[in-house]
Design goal:
With 214 residues, the chain is α/β, with parallel strands linked by helices. It is built from seven helices and nine strands, in the order ααβαβαββββαβαβαβ. It has one domain (26-213): Vaccinia Virus protein VP39 (Rossmann fold), CATH 3.40.50. The protein starts with 6 loop residues before the first helix and ends with a strand. The structure holds S-adenosylmethionine (SAM). Its EC number is 2.1.1.67. This is Thiopurine S-methyltransferase. Keywords: Cytoplasm, Methyltransferase, S-adenosyl-L-methionine, Transferase.
């Protein structure tokens, strides 16, 4: 089983209900920039995000991974979604006909050949610098038929806060996804006034959205 020193941090956050990253609303950039022309969507490091419910409402089949079991159980419980739990070798799967959520470490996932599109909100930005490259490479490896990634990041002065979330600049996105066909920054917005927990530490915080084609 893959492990990184930062994994415990996430389990402690879920245990203590310190989940400021969880939004009660669907991501504004997801609603604005989603192109609904594929069926199978992968949501890496999915938490219990409502974005998955919205994606399902757009008729997608949602494949997710999240290594904290409370998060996955809360997702199905809070949204009153019936499901089955199954263990197959080292995989712990919560699923029904619309959702397939792996309660596993992202880096232990098998090839997901059905995935056509990836939605990354607060996944890349959650990872420390030493594993970001590995994340992008592994994402590419396990989604060989993925056409497109919609990526949402945060940008702020990394000197003012250690993260997570980590600040990811446009240059970092270009560097990480350099072997992809196109990387387009679609939009950005100031979000500091929406996120009181960062207001004391940061002088600015932007949310950015990118579309990456393979
Ligand atoms: C910042 S949260 C974002 C959750 C979700 N994308 C959202 O928008 O609410 C990052 C999530 O990734 C999970 N996580 C972190 N590292 C992981 C890994 N290697 N494998 C699976 N899940 C991981 C954490 O438990 C946490 O729920």
């Amino acid at each position: 089983m893959t492990q990184h020193p930062s994994d415990n941090h996430w389990h402690e956050m879920w245990r203590d209900n310190r989940i400021g990253f969880h939004q009660s609303e669907v991501s504004a950039f997801l609603e604005k920039y989603w192109e609904n022309n594929h069926r199978n969507v992968f949501v890496p490091l999915c938490g219990k995000t409502k974005d998955m419910v919205w994606l399902r409402e757009q008729q997608h089949r949602v494949i997710g991974v999240e290594f904290n079991e409370t998060a996955i159980r809360d997702f199905f419980g809070e949204n009153e979604i019936e499901h089955t739990v199954e263990r197959k070798e080292n995989l712990h799967l919560f699923h029904n006909e619309h959702y397939q959520l792996y309660c596993n470490n992202f880096f232990d996932l098998p090839i997901l050949s059905e995935v056509e599109i990836v939605f990354d909100r607060a996944a890349l930005v959650a990872l420390p610098i030493d594993i970001r490259k590995k994340y992008v490479e592994y994402l590419k490896k396990i989604t060989p038929n993925c056409m497109r990634i919609l990526l949402i990041t945060y940008e702020y002065d990394q000197q003012q806060m250690s993260g997570p979330p980590f600040s990811i600049t446009h240059d970092m996105v270009k560097d990480l996804y350099h072997d992809h066909e196109t990387i387009d920054k679609l939009d950005e917005r100031d979000v500091l006034q929406l996120l009181p927990m960062f207001q004391k530490r940061l002088s600015f915080m932007k949310e950015c959205v990118y579309q990456i084609h393979r």
